[in-house]
Amino acid sequence: MDQAYQTKTMLSNALKTLMQEKPFNKITIRDLTETCGLQRQTFYYHFQDIYALLEWTYHEEVLSLVADYDSPSSWFDATLKVLYFIKDNDEICLNALQSMGRKQLYNFFYKDFFLIYTRMFKEIAKPVNPDDKFIEFISEMMVFGTQGYIMKWIESGLNESPEQILEWFKTVIEAATLSIATNQANTAGKKS
Known about the structure:
Blueprint: H1 3-19, H2 29-36, H3 40-46, H4 50-66, H5 72-88, H6 90-124, H7 132-155, H8 162-191
Helix pairs in contact: 1-2, 1-4, 4-5, 5-6, 5-8, 6-7, 7-8
């Protein structure tokens, strides 16, 4: 592991520790660097601001769980890992949600989850040669639904099990896949 990665990891761990003690929007660069024993300039060498550190942390811890999954069955395994990550880090996730607000959190997740869903639906629907615009539409709907439900789940105390949520996601994804095939059949029928 190189020195830059180690420094970023130290700052990330400090952020997670501090987020268990106080709201994200009350954490300062000074808090982070003092917790790590680093100088303020070191922080700015690696990150533009505290939001960039939070995004890096998210990418390292959450996206690494789903980035390499490219089939629906492996995607479900990755989703379960993400749900357990949220459940195991509930204080940090609730803190981020309460401090950042829905709009910032939405922007945070949108691009990554959109790419994941788009890739998954293209793979699932490959046999019917789906319309790209419809795949984008279905992927956006899934992103909005996933984000909304996960935020609600965090805010309401994580009462449902990760397995239950995964089963609900699977049901919705199966319905979306059927919708892709139906849309493609209807589109093909209109062209002939």
